[in-house]
Amino acid sequence: MDCLLGDVRDALLMDVQCGDSPNRYAEAQSFAERLRLGIAVIHGEAQDAESDLVDGRHSPPMVRSAAAIHPSLEIPMLIPKEKPPITVVGDVGGRTAVIVDDIIDDVDSFLAAAETLKERGAYKIFVMATHGLLSSDAPRLIEESAIDEVTEPG
């Protein structure tokens, strides 16, 4: 870790998906303690430019109004899920952020997290993943993003 980051005293371990499981934050905190790093958490999701993306499920399309009622059945129709904005819990200003995950394939969440961290004043942003699949145009997107480096542990 020292050879990757240099002086790690100003680094923070970032947990991007702590809502995925109840133990996720505890695992991230334990990892941060072993590395003697602080921890910050990113909550929320990036807003999609298009809300009617096909998600592969055979479900009716979303409606745009919460007051939509099916005309003949008189029951409420589906309401689109509101995504909370990305929020950072912890001070990242002037610090190096290290986002750790097991796999990096679809990079959208990493790019959104990195952009938010830069907006909050993070000095550098590293992504560390055990498995770097980087499908499609992920390498180009990372190159054009706020992420300084993607690496694997060890």
3D architecture notes:
- With 154 residues, this protein is α/β, with parallel strands linked by helices.
- It has one domain (2-47, 85-151): 3-Layer(aba) Sandwich (Rossmann fold), CATH 3.40.50.2020.
- 22% of the residues lie in helices and 23% in strands.
- The protein has four helices and six strands, in the order αβαβββαβαβ.
- It has a six-stranded mixed beta sheet with strand order 3-2-1-4-5-6, with helices on both faces.
- Strand 1, helix 2 and strand 2 form a beta-alpha-beta unit.
- The longest helix has 12 residues, at 24-35.
- It is globular, with a radius of gyration of 19 Å.
- It starts with a helix and ends with a strand.
